[in-house]
Structures are given as structure tokens and as C-alpha cells.
Amino acid sequence: MPTPFRHTEPLPPKAATGRVAEVYAQAARDFGIPEPAPFVVLSSAPALVAPAWALMRESLIAGPGGRTGKEVAAFGVSQANKCRFCVDAHTMLLHATGDHALAERLARGREPADEGHARVLDWARRTRVPGAARDPYPFPREEVPGYLGTVLAFHFINRIVSALVTENLLPADAQRLRPVRSLAGRSLSRTVRRPAAPGAALPLLDDPGPGPAWAAGTPVGPAYAALSSTATMGAGLLDADDQTLVRTTLRAWDGSHPGLVPDPFPDRRERPGARLALLAALAPYRITDADVAAWRRPEHTDHCLVHLVAYGAFAAVDRVETALTAPATRPTGRETS
After folding, report:
1. Annotated active-site positions, please?
2. Fewer CB within 10 Å: N-end or C-end of the chain?
């Protein structure tokens, strides 16, 4: 059976122990999917699994704001990042919320009929462009932690998936068929519609700190702080010059998808680590076997590769978050749940 993973071979989920096994168990209960590919592929670097899961759980699943509206936001981010796997996944999850008409409108490339959902979708797409989606946000103030946490979680997850997971959500691309995606969504409906208690993922984290002000003291804050501190550890795989190049490139990034010609990324023969990190940040779907092979050395295990990709992915998240939350937010808007 072909593996769903690219460039890395994570351990089979049945071999998981400790925190990783706890994440899989919680995902089965709260997400309805016991071994989600985006978290399985991170398991080669186990320290990343719990923070990535916690940010998604505490924002999308248990955070403030209706699940349908946050699924629309996750769909919009995934569309902006060209993550087909995640676009398909959130189409199925919208079916799971019970809003089948909305799911199929989005699957066909149409805008939501509901004005509130249309505004959320537009806002979520624009979050890829630094500074283009600042307040006023299209949801009430009290839902900011849920919505911002969701879009930032998927700016990270989209990049991990695009870099390290194939596009086929289901075998033979079966999710492209309406009856299949509808049935798959319905199979998750009981879990998706069941209320989830905030904070259940925090015991999986090691003293993460309170997190950013926009999280307003909710569990989204510690989850974001934990992912930030863990993902940025991958910087240690680059020398000081390469780290500087990643930072300066991200500061200048305007949210666009880099062109193919001329190749705007560092030469893989000269700066393979910087190339991988910047590809993960700006165009993870363009990472090739040749890019990975140019960087690989005997000491560069799958653990290292996942950490390097996570570092690049979070560099983009940090750029988006900084632009999205400055200046001080004054969220206003209507309910979209």
C-alpha cells in the first residue's frame, strides 16, 4: 500500500507511545479521526505533535465561535495556501457540521450564500497577505481567540501537509466525488457537533506560558506559545547566515506565491538548508526529492527534516500573526456560527 507521506517515513501510529499516543487518543475522541495524517507526519519529531494538535483543538474544535464559521475560515486559509489536501478535508468537515449546501458551494468554487460566512471566507483568504486582514474582523470580539487561533493553526498545518503529505486525502482521490465527501462528513458529524471542553489539550504541553494578548487568556494562548517555542527550535539546524536570510526574506514577503522563473529560492547546492526552510514558509508544495537530498547528510534524520520544515512553516505563521494583530485589534462584526 503506498504511503501517504513524502520525504519522510514516520513510525506507524500503533507504535506511538507517550504524548504522541495521547494526542492520537484525543484526536480520535475530539476530532473523530484517530490518526490524522498532519500529526502522524510530525511524529518523527515528537515534540511538535502535541503543540500543533493543541493549537488546532483549542481554537477550531473547542475555542470560541461556531464550528461552521471556523471551518469556513480554515477552508479559506487552505485555499489561499494552495493546500488541496486541507481544502478537501474542510469540505468534508463542513458536511459534518450539517451545512451540506455550504460545503458543496465551496467545493464547486462558489461563494457562500450567507453574508457572514462570505465575509469570513474572504477574510481568511486575505490572512496570507501580511497586513491585508487586520481588524475590523468579521466576527464578534469574544470569538477572536477561536478564529485567529484557527487561521494560524492552519497556516502552519497547510505548510506541513503541503511539504510532507501527498494530496490524496482518500485513496484514488475519492473525496473529489460528492457522494463520498458527503458520506465521509456524515460519518464525523456526531463528533463534530458534540461540544468539546476548552483546555483539555493543555496537560499535553510543558509549561508553555500564557501566549499572545489576542488569545485573551483562553487555552488558545498557551497552545500558540507552545507551538512557537517548539517550532522555532528548528532554527538550530541552520547557521547564522541562513537564519538571517530566512528572517529578512520573511520580513519582505508580501504574501504572494513565488514565481517559478527565475527561481527565487537559494541554490540547493550552496544553501540547501535555507532553501528548504524558505520553501516550507512560502511554497511548501514545491519541495522536491532533489531539495531534500541536497540537504541530507548522515546526521540529518527524519527528525531533523520535520523540525526544519516546521521552522520554516512557523516563520511564515509568525509573519502572518504579527501583521494580523497589529495595531491593537478592535474586532466587530456579526455572528457567523
Report:
1. 86
2. N
